[in-house]
């Protein structure tokens, strides 16, 4: 059974969020932990996805509408979990009357975000040695 929860970065949820992000960003992608943990988690709302009580995906949204740190464990990719995370984060933005959400998409994820209604803007950029494209979605 799949469960989606919007959570704070508290002691209970922190371990799940760290576990997923450590596996995906630090172990798989080789991102420096100092870059990954930027000090903004406490001010964000996080989404956690659980399958049979196992945390398998996460993402966050900041108060300015910035979506980031979207990660799904490798074994669970291709099951629309990433889309569910983004949809949950957009729902938070709508409830908080944000005009838009935006993110820096890794180059290989641009089509994923295009399908979810995001539009590229600006120039490509490098973050944590990975090519990214800024993207946004205007909210009604």
Blueprint (SSEs and pairs):
Elements: E1 2-7, H1 11-28, H2 33-36, E2 45-51, E3 54-61, E4 67-72, H3 81-95, E5 100-106, H4 110-115, E6 119-120, E7 125-127, E8 130-138
Antiparallel strand pairs: 1-2, 2-3, 3-4, 5-8, 6-8, 7-8
Keywords:
4 helices; Aminopeptidase; alpha+beta; 140 residues; 4-stranded antiparallel β-sheet
Description:
- The chain is α+β, with helices and mostly antiparallel strands and 140 residues long.
- The protein has one domain (2-99): Gcn5-related N-acetyltransferase (GNAT) (Aminopeptidase), CATH 3.40.630.30.
- The chain is built from four helices and eight strands; from the N terminus they run E-H-H-E-E-E-H-E-H-E-E-E.
- A four-stranded antiparallel β-sheet has the order 1-2-3-4, sandwiched between helices. Strands 5, 6, 7 and 8 form a four-stranded antiparallel β-sheet that branches.
- The radius of gyration is 14 Å and the shape is globular.
Gist?
The chain has four helices and eight strands; from the N terminus they run E-H-H-E-E-E-H-E-H-E-E-E. The chain has 140 residues and is of the alpha+beta class. Strand 3 and strand 4 (67-72) form a beta hairpin.
């Amino acid at each position: 059974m799949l469960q989606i929860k919007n959570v704070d970065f508290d002691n209970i949820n922190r371990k799940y969020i760290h576990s997923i992000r450590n596996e995906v960003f630090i172990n798989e992608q080789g991102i420096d932990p100092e870059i990954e943990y930027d000090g903004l988690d406490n001010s964000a709302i996080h989404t956690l996805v659980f399958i049979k009580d196992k945390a398998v995906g996460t993402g966050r949204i900041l108060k300015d509408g910035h979506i980031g740190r979207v990660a799904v464990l490798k074994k669970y990719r291709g099951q629309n979990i990433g889309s569910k995370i983004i949809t949950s984060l957009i729902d938070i933005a709508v409830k908080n009357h944000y005009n838009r959400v935006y993110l820096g998409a890794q180059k290989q994820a641009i089509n994923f975000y295009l399908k979810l209604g995001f539009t590229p803007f600006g120039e490509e950029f490098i973050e944590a040695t990975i090519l990214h494209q800024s993207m946004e979605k205007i909210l009604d």
